[in-house]
Amino acid sequence: MRIGLVGTGRIGTFHTAVLARHPGVTSLVVADADPARAAEAAEAARRAGAAHRTGPSVEAARSVDELFASGPDAVVIASATSAHAELIGRTARAGLPAFCEKPVALDLAGTRAALAATAAAGTALQLGFMRRFDAGYTAARDAVRTGLLGRLHTVRAVTSDPAPPPVGYLPLSGGLYRDCLVHDFDALRWVTGREVVEVYATGSDAGPPMFREAGDVSTAAAVLTLDDGTLATATATRRNGAGYDVRMELAGEKDQWVVGLDGRTPLTSAEPVGPPPPADPWPGFLERFGPAYEAELDAFVALARDGGGGGAVNPCDGYEALAALRIAEACERSRREHRPVRLDEVPGAGDGAAP
């Protein structure tokens, strides 16, 4: 299978390396708005393949047009967010399956337009919510679904980045709810199998002035009510000096589980007999979720190879991304207006699952 990959920034370069050693990929062509960066990513992947004497041929296209003209069987989109919707539409019109990093678009209208283009073409679109492929989140989902925890009453989700993104990224990110907490919103729906019906959110722009200048917040908190009465909290911050911390705690009437608690979780116990702080805390998302990123691309290769024949299941289609974005939109509205916001106030109600 010949895969085209658009975007060779940090995550795109990581995806290039993963696909360059995938046994189901025979050739890989990459493109970027900066052709030199695409060439560097291709060369690094070729060197890695030569060192291991394995992997497909890897080449760099001089443009996205050249990539599409090269005849890919599927396309991976890891470009800047502003280009996602257009590339999804273009891939769909070419009759090709697409994998796209979240989000589809930064607004609901753009998201629905891209999903409509995919539906009209009858092609597959898989979104990159990698936590669905993490061993801990998968085990927690099974524990909830099998009743191991009993009636679930409380969920606590935490995402803490060790350092802010570049200043220039903030105005383009969509804000902390859409860019960061959207992962927690998707994981909350996926693990519990429930829908969010109401949110109350707030945020703080304390810290470096770049957050205020971008109209964003550096720390956010939301209380979410699920459709069965379960209460959830989701918090995020752009600056957590201890390291990269992503956890989900699930409390039920029978038991309580936590995702993301291991020997590298950047936590220090205040108890005299508590565990010591980790010697090697998680430094970032690629290290923490590396195996999950690989697993989601493996699922996409299987989906693309299947060609809609019914054998492979799409683990996260575009409508799942729309559902998570609607929660993020509700939180942003709640923060601005200082009030609870019901999800049925946000356009797109009923679009949380494929029609």
Provide an overview of this structure.
The protein folds into two domains: 2-131 and 291-317, NAD(P)-binding Rossmann-like Domain (Rossmann fold, 3-Layer(aba) Sandwich); 136-284 and 321-345, Dihydrodipicolinate Reductase, domain 2 (2-Layer Sandwich), CATH 3.30.360.10. The chain contains twelve helices and 13 strands. Helix 4 (84-93) runs parallel beside helix 5 (108-121). It starts with a strand and ends in a 13-residue tail after the last strand. It is an alpha/beta fold. The model is unreliable at 349-355 (pLDDT under 50). It is globular and about 55 Å long. The strands form two sheets. Strands 12-11-7-10-9-8-13 form a seven-stranded mixed sheet. The chain has a six-stranded parallel sheet with strand order 3-2-1-4-5-6, with helices on both faces. The protein has helices at 10-19, 35-52, 64-69, 84-93, 108-121, 135-145, 170-173, 176-192, 209-213, 285-288, 290-306, 318-337; strands at 2-6, 27-31, 57-60, 74-77, 98-101, 125-128, 152-160, 196-204, 219-226, 231-237, 245-252, 256-259, 341-342.
